């Protein structure tokens, strides 16, 4: 995070004695890039290494689908069943060595704590609300929030009672960052950035839990999940400070950048990862030059894959693409508006759609779960019989303004 935050009690100086009721607390430096990157310093009631028991190690297994043909894809995710919890219920759709993209509709509560020991996470809350309980304090979330969780954060989801949850989950072995071009040399977000520090929300309240008993913490490490049992509640921190902590940013707080003629996708960038970006397409005024074509030109993303998740908006009246749809435009192929849509878009002044896009520089592999959601038709949506031009109203992709 590009700012300093502190919750609870910390001593006046680093690395000096800090006691509670006479007992010396355990100081933990949690940092990135050796001791050169961002870090936070936490003060525990117990040593975080104090493991009572080693539970099982479960390797991560992925069921890959290698399609017979290389083509554009449309996955309809709306009807996926609820299953598992906020971690075990993540259903992997596509992945490469830089990022994993999953869907999650949890059916049950986590009865353990989780920590990703080998990657950062961004969880987009499409539907649902609640609190992410973390070792850094409580982090409330609501629909439209990106919940950014740096590696090493011990957490547990506490969804609001009776509220269904639907998440789009990104996990990366690299770092999730705010694009460098938005930050000055001191880390402050600059005037041209589409959001500001006031839009970024750190944990609100640190609750130090002094419970003893058996507490399971599941840690993602070395391509699997290792469970550890502690004899104390893992939220035993009395205070912490630093630059490393989970936070939220609402897609509704993204300030769209518009222009006289069409602005390219990087203007929608929200996060940067290694060899991938996450972008937010938000309701906005469209291009205002009298001759502007307000929807995108065809483009060949020769070195990237484009995954778009449709969150909300006016495409819902169209056949084919709906809320919960995912389109994947893989590398090596051109794509653009379907026949008739560029003409139809002329004169449009605004769009109300809301979507999350992930572009990767390296090819994405698909899972059998993605195969089961593939409509098998989208790749032909640009085709029309020469003698019978399709009406734009019947176009399965609808008018979308950003891809
Ligand atoms: Fe595109």
Keywords:
403 residues; mainly beta; seven-stranded mixed β-sheet; binds fe (ii) ion
Structure description:
With 403 residues, the protein is mainly beta. 3% of the residues lie in helices and 39% in strands. It has helices at 341-345, 368-373, and strands at 5-8, 19-20, 23-24, 26-31, 39-44, 51-59, 64-65, 73-76, 90-95, 100-104, 113-116, 120-127, 130-134, 137-141, 145-149, 154-159, 166-172, 200-201, 212-221, 224-232, 237-242, 247-250, 269-273, 276-281, 284-285, 299-300, 305-312, 325-329, 334-335, 350-351, 354-360, 365-367. The strands form 7 sheets. The protein has a 9-stranded antiparallel β-sheet. Strands 6-20-19-11-16-13-14 form a 7-stranded mixed β-sheet, with no helix packed on it. Residues 394-398 have low confidence and may be disordered. The protein binds fe (ii) ion. Fe (ii) ion is lined by residues 299, 301, 306, 329, 335, 403.
Which helices and strands, and how do they pair?
Layout: E1 5-8, E2 19-20, E3 23-24, E4 26-31, E5 39-44, E6 51-59, E7 64-65, E8 73-76, E9 90-95, E10 100-104, E11 113-116, E12 120-127, E13 130-134, E14 137-141, E15 145-149, E16 154-159, E17 166-172, E18 200-201, E19 212-221, E20 224-232, E21 237-242, E22 247-250, E23 269-273, E24 276-281, E25 284-285, E26 299-300, E27 305-312, E28 325-329, E29 334-335, H1 341-345, E30 350-351, E31 354-360, E32 365-367, H2 368-373
The protein binds fe (ii) ion.
Fe (ii) ion binds at residues 299, 301, 306, 329, 335, 403.
